[in-house]
Write a structure and sequence with these properties.
- This protein has 269 residues and is of the alpha/beta class.
- The chain has one domain: Rossmann fold (3-Layer(aba) Sandwich).
- Helices cover 37% and strands 20% of the residues.
- The protein contains ten helices and seven strands.
- Strand 2, helix 6 and strand 3 form a beta-alpha-beta unit.
- Helix 4 packs across helix 5 and helix 7 crosses helix 8.
- The longest helix has 13 residues.
- The protein is globular, with a radius of gyration of 17 Å.
- The mean pLDDT is 94.
- The structure holds S-adenosylmethionine.
């Protein structure tokens, strides 16, 4: 198991999820909605709200075929498949998260529209020109070989297809606040600046439709909505160990300008 797989492994994830749902007053024997799971399964900066905003700018249409790379528990895949009538494939390297994603797809009755594949973003197991949209949230920051990553995304997109993403990007100096939600140690932290990201994407044939730095917006909203965690409340801590410290380090790094939050929509011709 690589250090990155170890970082994202969560043992007994199905049992943890079921216990977390029950503790939050949800009944896994009954059909759940993607919205009810929103605090649990959007494992990225800004959570469900950020996914809804990305969905708005990504302009995914009914009938589109979507790929969610590094899908985690597939919260965004369920949001997309339920909000827009479309098919979503998920690729995720952690077998534990794949198992959690399959469980939650079943509990929400969305297993017919969402397929979960264990595999690597650097070697996508799909033919060329398969997808209308590739979606990725908080994953590239763990991947050093961005040329291969963006080349793979361009390869599996249909002509005219779009890549919609949000990522952490490098700030003015490297962060020294560890552990972070995505990196236990500096070796796991593969950030590039927003400019470098755009340039790498351009080199792989992508055309910018939207690129924005949402760090300040995110920080002002987080400050306005800061509420202490409540015991039994559904949240990422169901499957992320040491979450409070990791989240505090990410917030501090953002406040100090050592990391930035960016999102974008890029197109291939
Ligand atoms: C911070 S989580 C984000 C999960 C999901 N995108 C979300 O926003 O809820 C990062 C995910 O990327 C996955 N990941 C990291 N590197 C990957 C790679 N090379 N190929 C596939 N998945 C990867 C991790 O296993 C983890 O599930």
């Amino acid at each position: 198991m690589s250090s990155m797989q170890a970082h994202y492994a969560a043992r007994d994830i199905e049992a943890r999820i079921l216990a977390g749902l029950r503790a939050a007053g949800l009944n896994p024997e009954q059909r759940l909605t993607p919205q009810e799971l929103g605090a649990l399964d959007h494992f990225h900066t800004g959570g469900l709200r950020a996914s809804r905003e990305l969905l708005e700018v990504a302009q995914i249409r009914a009938g589109d075929h979507v790929l969610d790379i590094g899908a985690g528990l597939a919260g965004s895949a369920r949001l997309i498949a339920s909000a827009v009538d479309c098919r979503v494939d998920c690729i995720e390297m952690s077998p534990d998260y794949c198992a959690g994603a399959v469980l939650l797809n079943r509990l929400t009755g969305l297993e017919d529209r969402i397929a979960v594949h264990e595999g690597s973003a650097l070697d996508l197991p799909f033919p060329d020109h398969t997808f209308d949209v590739v979606w990725m949230q908080n994953v590239g920051m763990n991947i050093a070989d961005k040329r291969t990553l963006y080349g793979q995304i361009a390869r599996v997109l249909k002509p005219g297809g779009r890549y919609a993403f949000q990522e952490m990007a490098a700030g003015k100096v490297p962060t020294s606040n560890y552990p972070l939600p995505w990196a236990t140690e500096p070796a796991d932290n593969c950030l590039v600046s927003g400019d470098e990201m755009c340039s790498l994407l351009g080199g792989c044939g992508f055309i910018t439709e939207l690129f924005e730095d949402t760090s300040d917006l995110h920080m002002s909203r987080t400050a306005a909505n800061a509420t202490p965690a409540v015991a039994g409340q559904l949240g990422l801590s169901v499957f992320v160990d040491n979450l409070a410290q990791k989240a505090a380090n990410a917030r501090r790094s953002l406040e100090q300008g050592e990391v930035r939050l960016v999102r974008g929509v890029f197109r291939v011709d």
